Amino acid sequence: DARVTQTPRHKVTEMGQEVTMRCQPILGHNTVFWYRQTMMQGLELLAYFRNRAPLDDSGMPKDRFSAEMPDATLATLKIQPSEPRDSAVYFCASGLVGSGSQETQYFGPGTRLLVL
Amino acid sequence: QKEVEQDPGPLSVPEGAIVSLNCTYSNSAFQYFMWYRQYSRKGPELLMYTYSSGNKEDGRFTAQVDKSSKYISLFIRDSQPSDSATYLCAIAGNNRKLIWGLGTSLAVNP
Q: Is A84 helix (H, G, I), strand (E, B) or coil?
């Protein structure tokens, strides 16, 4: 069945290194979201795209984070340079807006990031 | 004050119990109310969706919205061990941008 996929599932890196996370949204979905989840803050929206155009990235630290959708089948989230406080689970979700039905967000399995 | 407040629990109940999970919110403009379920080490999945006020029932699950009190609830009847998960409320206004609760951890004990 159709699922959002994310790679890598786990990433351990050292402070200062670049981290790239990838997401393949469900085929046909036109909206992609990037979230970060921590125990203290819960789920925080970092950025979202509609039809590959960035609509809102106000939740993202601009100096080190960047999000792109090079094509309809790939979304990327980069952190450069990474810091220990970036340690979290990063989720990608996709959805279909404008279908007339409820706008469910379908989540991927997440990338568990640990920055040492 | 956070826009959406949710007691993180943990909540532990025996199998067969009725479970009540709640969220409060501060913005009266919110119109879309959702409950997501998240199993350990998985992404959240939509459980219930309600637009505006009222109740919605789906099997053992009932979602309630009280806009006058800015209060939403999820009830689980005849709870099962497979219901053990974290339940997150998510609320949105016309911009459809979801504001999430922290989640309530539920354990249903056989």
A: helix
* Residue type at position A28: G
Query: Residue B94: which pLDDT band, with cuts at 50, 70 and 90?
Result: confident
Task: Inform me whether the C-beta atom of residue A95 falls under 8 Å from chain B C-beta atoms.
Answer: no
Whether B46 sits inside 8 A of A104 (CB atoms) is yes
Chain B residues in contact with A42 (beta carbon < 8 A): 88, 100-103
- Touching check for A45 and chain B: CB below 8 Å? yes
**Mean pLDDT of the A96-115 span:** 83
3-state DSSP assignment of residue B81: helix
CB atoms within 10 A of CB B56: 15
Cβ-based neighbour number of residue A28 at 10 Å: 10
Radius of gyration, CA atoms only, chain B: 13
